[in-house]
Protein 1
Amino acid sequence: MATHKATRAQIDSGEAVGIVAAQSIGEPGTQMTMRTFHYAGVAEQVPTGLPRLIELLDARKEPKKPIMDVYVDEKYEETEEKCRQIAAQIQAVMLEDIGKIEERLGTREIMVILDPAVLKERKLDIDDIKAALKKFSGGEVHASGNEVKISFKGSTLRAIRRVTNKIRSVHMAGVKGISRAAVLKNGNKHFIRTAGSNIAEIAKIPGVDFKRSYTNNIMEVNRVLGIEAARNAIILEIMQVLESQRMDVDVRHVALLADAMTMDGLIRSVGRHGLSGRKAGVLARAAFEETLKHLINAAVTGEEDKLIGITENIIIGQTIPVGTGIVKLARRI
Amino acid sequence: MVPAKKKSRMFKKMVAGKIEDGERPSKTAIYINGRLIGFHDDGDSLVAELRAKRRAGEISPEVNFALNRATGELQVSTDSGRARRPYIVVENGKSLYTPEMVKKVESGELKWNELIKMGVIEYLDAEEENDIAFVAADEKHITEKSTHMEIDPVSICGVTVSQLTYPEHNSSPRITMACAMSKQSLGFYASNYNLRMDSRAHILYYPQEPLVQSEPYRHMNFHRRPAGQNFVVAITSYYGYNMGDAVVMNKNAVDRGLGRSVFFKVHESEERRYPGGQKDKFESPNPTVSGYREEYMYRYLGDDGIVVPESEVQSKDVLVGKTSPPRFLEEVSAFGLTEEKKRENSLVIKSGDEGVVDSVMLTESPSGNKFVKVRVRSIKVPENGDKFASRHGQKGVIGLLVPQEDMPFTESGIVPDLIINPHAIPSRMTAGHLIEMLGGKAACFTGERVNGTAFSGQDAEEFKQTLKEQGFESYGKEILYDGLSGERIESEVFVGVIYYQRLHHLVSNKMHVRSRGPVQLLTHQPTEGKAREGGLRFGEMERDCLIGYGASMLVRERMLEESDKTVELVCNKCGMIAVHDFIKRRDYCPLCDSVELYKVEMSYAFKLLLDEIKAIGILPRLKLKDKA
């Protein structure tokens, strides 16, 4: 009985799953509002709805607002303390966050006046700062008390200004790319939400439960965890967008889309530069966009259209190889 | 004021120095009709003085002043082409138009022009409005800041809105729609319509003036050329035939002439002249003429080749028989005589334009040719799909015409002319529609017109009172009985009288079918549009639906068999499409001269695509293979 039902639930061969998936996502998509919900805190301004969906399907290198949900080991979850500590640890600290930077153009010096309290909190030493400054400024670095002095010889004022601007954002501590980290509460469990994403570095931090931690940066997932993980991430992200708009779309449609996007081991966008631009048939590609480009390239390389796809067969006026048209005679009598 | 001689020097000084510093100009520049004429030290007092003088009658009331304090410019406008409108002047929180004046105006002692001379009413242009006007809508809204008052609050509306009733009770999108639709209503657009030759014209049978109307409606004399009728309307459902903005209409009311109209269409034809001294000729064409239609199509033509008035013309009938000279010059025949070979070029009735020939006008075209206009008339009885609308943006098409005996009726035997669906009301928020229905119902008993002017129309309470006095339920609800079963309908139904307009979207003018028909020359695909007897496009998204369903055979039928299927000969050697040599009567490949050709079924669009690809310098080849 169970096997019978399972067999019946299988998709028939020749079913046009792609078109059904496209229509299933596209139809409710037309009603999707441009409205974005507003949250307080870090989660704000993360695009949802249509802009986010477009971002996902275009397979952008970097999402508009990358965020991470970092979980700590289960034993620390109940209390806020560990989370706070890790949050403080991963938030990227730049030089301007730990002290004042003053330009003294008269004497051709840059003074960095450090705040000892912040320094202590971030577990930084004046020597760390000295070292970092030596590396980035290109001037002579002297430290005394809470002050670091960089002096230049013969540099133009413009060069000094350039250095000032550069050292402002010198990475001192925490994880690169994490501009903010906030502790949020879900029930009585705590987790950290960050603005900016860097999952590879997060994994190295003790106390972080890497298995549960999450990023919305698909490309990063692909880089760090591989294409299969990226596929799952795409499904998850798209479903999240759809559900936030109360669009009831079956996961399998989305899964097919994600499969199509990741099938050649890379994340391909949906459109001219990705999926549609890489179809097998010349005619199908030419029918979509940039007709001339595809025709000319085909002519130059002497390409042959095997007439495998739907579009090609409609163009030439043949029965399309889908549904009732996929059936062929096994043998001519 | 600065003497005119000094002005240019000062102007230069200011441009060169003061103004460029970004300071506020200390002096006010004075412009008359946009031309700088001088400067004044105190702009504010100058405008005040000028305005006082205008109100006192010392300066023409047609002059307007506008002081721009930010730029220090005083614009004095006396020129033509400014849009101006009148206001009642308010001074110190009091309207200058006193109750005494009202009496005098009513008795005719005081006239409009005198009020302007007295400075009670003044005209402002757009610029002066922006400068000073702080306008109260009516007396109640005058504050200390007020400078003017509207003569009537409706005047904030334009012509189209002000002819609506109770627009202040409706939502703004519906008002916009009501305005747009009232322009499409059929009525009695001109009393000389019978003499006119408008290319299209509709005349409503029995046009009525509305029971509920606004004051501007009368001022515009719209009631003398009405465009609608008062319908008895019930708001209830009727077996699902008025779902989604459909309406149910009383068949007997329609038979009595409700919503009936005539449609006139004018067809034109001209005896054109051609280079070489040839010209067209109006005549009943000889059967030898090339392109001669079937004989019966010419049956209504008179001796002059033009239809006889009052003939009932069907589609494809000829209105004006016309023959034209051949398109190309003929060779001289063996006998040295040029044989007259004429071409049929008659004016023909197209499908949908059938009717009775109303009148024929013979005249001369601007270029001096013989010119004929034929007006065809047809009576348009309301039918399924015809569009109606009230003046509240409530539009609908007829979903069903019901015989009177099957319609619901009231206790007193009243049967509605129209049944609209209650779902049309709440989400659109057209309370005005309901108030008009109530007002119209009350008007039926008082015998007087109801004033439904925006902001100052009669209150619904009055109508309730009237209805109560007449023994009706004061909110207009009635007990109805089902026309089919005779049973009482459980809930009460709101029944009222409201003005409805028939809109010029008539099914009979739009209906179109095609099974087989003309195809385009270039693509061999069916033509598009009603005028060309075209098909309906089976587009990309429709195609996707069939693919999604897996109906391959149907896709092929739609895209190929029912469209532009062709059979081409393809060369098996080089993959080119073969050509036919008509002289040698043989097919061959134009590229390799081979005659090893096979018939291939394809869409003509594909053959065209191959040709176009060749045209851009790419050689596409077809590789032939036996079908499995």
Note: The interface with chain B takes residues 14-16, 19-20, 22-23, 292, 295-296, 298-299, 304, 310, 314-326, 328-329, 332 of chain A (CB under 8 Å).
Protein 2
Amino acid sequence: MKEMILLKNGEIALKGLNRASFEDKLIKNARRKLSDLGKFNIRKAQSTMYVEPTSDEQDLEEAVQRLRQVFGIAGLTRCAVVEKDFDIICKTAAEYLADQLEDSRTFKVNAKRADKSFPMKSPQICADLGGYLLKNFPHLKVDVNKPDIEVVVEIRDFGAYIHANQIVGAGGIPVGSGGKAMLLISGGIDSPVAGTMMAKRGLQIEAIHFVSPPYTSEHARQKVITLTEKMSEWCGSIRLHIVPFTEIQELIKDNCPEELFTIIMRRFMMRIAVAAAEKANCSALVTGESVGQVASQTVQAIACTDAVCTIPVLRPVIGMDKIEIVKIARYIDTFETSILPYEDCCTVFTPRHPRTRPKLEDVINAEKVLDIDALVAKATAGIEIMDIG
Amino acid sequence: MDEIYLDNAATTHVSHTAAQAVLSAMTDCWGNPSSLHKKGLQAKLAFEKAAADIAAAIGAKAENIIFTSGGTEADNLAIIGGALAKRRRGNRIVTTAIEHSAVLAACSYLEEQGFEVVRLIPDSFGRYTAEQIADAVNEKTVLVSMMLVNNEVGSVLPVGRAAKLIRRKNPETLIHCDAVQAFGKMPIKVGSALDVDLLSVSGHKIHAPKGIGALYIKKGVRILPLSHGGSQQKGLRTGTEPLPLAVGMAAAAAEAVKNLAAKQQHFEQLRTRLLENVSDMFDVCINSAPDSAPYIVNLSVVGVRSEIMLHFLESKGIYLSSGSACSKGQKSHVLTSMGLSPEVIDSALRISFDDTTTIEQIDIFSQALHEGAAAIRRR
């Protein structure tokens, strides 16, 4: 008996002529994720991919865990592959799935006969294999509607595949199949979620973070690096841009009205992010903004920050509640890191009463005193780059 | 006189790599991991790296690891902290009669607090079946504690299979495994094949310094702390993190799990040679099962009290143990529970290898054992 992993493609299967390029991206991403687990052969056939280990010592359990983090895979399962002989299929199903069958009370058998030269028809395979399993696991009962376990037998060209209860995959489409975007990452809960959500829609993510030493600490910077590492489990390798931001913050604080501090600061961040994005060939920005969450995230404030952006700003969590965002943050495992209590550049110099409905005109007037282009150029030139994951 | 150390189940020498790691942590990375400055960050990262290395050696993640002062504290934290967290769900604890005293004493403490403790009796080789362990679990069982490898006779318990059966019977039961004698000597991978909630390991059995061990806690499993203070290590083991020792243990663990398959084979060869060498001694009985861990052999030279043999061998520069080194002078509770006769128990010797033990050393030891048996009997 050989064992391998079956991947169901989901959404990609619906693509038209460019399906192959999506599949190739997916295979590349899967391979990368498995790179230190030995050599796997990956084959594609219709809406399924077969991930086959080349030796018995490879850790399939770990491989499944890793593949659950690859976007573009709707479902996955480990399966046994045997020759197309009904007695062997029965015996293998009973042995290979013994633990799961022991743990279940009800079951059903589902047969898929892609190879029509196989002598038994699907309903007969279901009936006979079902009977065999009932004999060997007398505690089981058949339930075709909502069984605890669904035993699947696929008769295909190369052999018979036996598996049970498919695990839900990460869904979405393969990272990198939709171009690149630059994520503004602060260290909070929302931005890693936003970045990962856009990666799920096929974007390759780069990230940009603003530091203001001595107001922000090494810990805050390290926290963002850790967050980026955790995101890279899902998003693949991420290039992180770290921008020196102290001078700009100090100048805004000393020269602009206090209640507009945050909005002017956000406009600087956007300008720098756009400049970095263009340089890195990213065609959009991504932020973790959610309407009404804080003063800078009212629609009026967003209008003011958008006014300096020359590329689209994607805000996947814009209409989500904190609870919904936290749920995803826990799922992608960034939550525990996000709540570590360090000052970040957004919490330094926070005005006592920020303007929640800023007028663009007022903001433009207020920031006129600063040499905007020179400051943006200087900050952009000072960007430190590191590749993570 | 060359020394021959055959007591590696008691403790091991500290490896050069581990010692170097400890030294550099003490001289170059001595910050407090909780400090907000750079020194603190450097220490914090080093500590997290150490946890990641220990985790990798058992197929877990850094966030699953809590460092303790050793195996005993890890066992206590797991058993007492686990049972107290589950107190509302029941009061029954299942363990085996051959556990290390850290486990048995922690269970006895809970017994005084009102828990019911079931101690299962092994077969005559110190073995259990998975069914035997799972059968003792009922709906009131809050915790099962079983070791992976016994420290006196080397028997291997079917922890993975037992855990599966226990989960089927009572999914609320916490499963703890004392893996101190298995860690770094046989492959351990928590997960579907070894689905335990808590797993204890120790540093000084794998060439790290004494004073450091770790407890693996499965994601989502809640236990209560035994000591209270700052919130270090998720509040489960408070106090400033023992960075130098943790780093030393991590270095030793990374070394230990390298080439495990080759190591296993080496242990098998040593054991085979030892058993061949003593097969002509008519009054020797082998107390370890043929399927026990190959790096621990327990045997009795019947009629020669262990302690006398131990001192005879010591005079030849050979070190081993009478029963378990932790309970000097006391009759072994492991051998007693196996139902061995008092003569066999009184003369039991434990020989335990590490990867530096050689066939030549085994030959010299066997020769000395023959001489000792003859010399002591004559007196």
Note: The mean pLDDT of chain A is 93.
Protein 3
Amino acid sequence: MRNATSLLLAAALAFPAQAETPSRDLELALAKSLQAVSNNRLDVALNEVDSLLKLNPNFKLAQLVRGDLLLARSKPISNFGDAPNAPRERVQDLREEANARLQRVQQQQPIAVPKYLWQLSPKQRYAVVVDTSKSTLYLYENVKGEPRYVADFYISVGKKGADKLAEGDQKTPLGVYFVNQHLTRDKLTDFYGSGAYPISYPNEWDKRLGRDGHGIWLHGTPSDTYSRPPLASNGCVVLNNDDLTHLGSHLQVGVTPVIITRKMDWMADSDLGERDALLKAIEQWRNDWASRDTESYLSHYAGDFSTGAVTLPAFAQQKRLVNSGKTWIKVRVSDLSVFPYPNQPDMAVVNFEQDYESNNLSNRMHKRQYWMKRDGRWQIVYEGAA
Amino acid sequence: MNKIKKLGRIAALCAFLSVSFAALADDIQDANKLFKQGLHAQAMEKVNTVLASKPKDAQARFLKGLIQTEQGNMADAIATFTGLTEDYPELPEPYNNLAVIYAGQGQYEKAKVALEMAIRTHPTYATAHENLGDIYAKMASQAYDRALQLEKSNTGTQTKLALIRELFGDNPKSARGAKTTVVVAAVEPTAASTPAATVAVAKKPEPAADDPAAEVVKTIQAWAAAWSAKDSKKYLSFYAKEFKTPDGLSRSAWETQRKQRIAAPKSIKVEVRDAKVKLADASHATISFRQSYRASHLNSMSGKLLDMVKTDGQWRIAADHSGK
């Protein structure tokens, strides 16, 4: 046991203060128990794990630790998860969960803002960023445009990890998505636990790259399971039921962004510069459109631009035709949000309310654009209604 | 929790108490004797007589608890032993026996607490330590099952249970320090060692029909099967007319007693192991074996030595020299 946990406890454990959620308390109790093991205080370790199991008997990892601690009183044990005839891959799963949770406990509460939240719209009261490598989902609140850390949660992702390419590859997609539905417990089987929030995979970029698959949800755990191993789902992001309910109370269907990255990155000064350059380009695009300078307006669109099946030449032709019939155009952009894309450098997803008026046509729409920085200049590679 | 040990310990404790209390009432000695002979009702009567005049008597109450355990009255036995722990908190044995009963009921937490109390009173109480180890292993196994969702039916679990059984197996037991000799002597007396010329046949699956030693083994296996089936009529048919009934009981009194004891437990499983037969002549033999007895509330392993006689072409039990 000592050997096995010293593998887990490579670094000396210190438990920084974190947002207080029941799951966080449980994780801390588990870490304390494992720390007690590494200090050879098996009695303390057992007390700790016993008291957390009283609250959550379905916490399988804690049951495994308890099994080891009890068995150690009966005979010497040599391995983490020393159950006789235990299925090796299940023990390995739980060992990985222990690792992930210990790492989480040792993390400082983030003070920086995630790189992926360049700008939130006033409507987006919260934002979610998932770090698949750290088995962690971060929840941020939009406080007057500034993302403020609220909580983070242990999660499970796809059995084969991240970066989904195809249906059935058991991977979790990386990208910028939005919560687009809420399925309550009564509409689901027990497998999904306290509820589910389908997200918008595959998004426009995924489709353009030919990525397929569907049904990527944030969801809970079965009633007999407190949590699942780090790599457990078919691509969904799985939280324990309390956490899902807690998180769910902050999610806005059709509004809340869920950005999934392989590795969390934090906002740097260079990001602020890039963000401002992009915001400037967006404003220039709006202005060029409103001033009916069609060629300047079209210069914001990249050579490989497309919207659905329509590519740049057809799009440009149609815009020239439409704009020639205008005597005046007004374009207002509001509720603008900007999210740099994980796993795709120099690309950002831009959403806004577009209020378009002209001498012969007016409309309001929710628009989504993908901007890419090419040759030092931000350009639109996709645009469409969201 | 292996019941083999339990019986051993109960007997051991009984023996321990019988030597450690200096002045023993004859009634208690008688009750003890009756209890060891399996005459529980009579033993209980004697104990109650003692308790009528000395209601606080630790030894009598302890014996009462043992009888209640043997009779399967677990709630009463728990009450009796619990009462003893309250009145005599310095005695570890009642705690230990409480633990054994709780463990038998699958209440491992309670068993654990009781054993910890026994150890607190006597930190070197080996039996309690050993039992506690068993309880921990059992609790660990439960925790592993929950952690890994091991199916009860899969072979892994079966192997694991077999392992645990082995872990708790037939190790020589020791109890409280200096009393070890007494204790060991008090545990099931083993059969007299059999002469070198014995014929070991137990492992032959299909003994040849003309092999008398094999016939004897087959008979004893059939006897064990009848006992396991709780078929007392068939069971009794294995005893020869001249069978020497124990304790001077009449044949009919003995038969009644056997019927009661076979009827009492919900289930019985008797197994014959390591059988060795010694033939005196074509119709007389002795058989020695280890008898594994598992019933709803009690398990035991004991050595058996039986005289066998063949009349009318059928081997029957003529005398039982074991355990008396």
Note: Confidence is low (pLDDT under 50) at residues 1-12 of chain A.
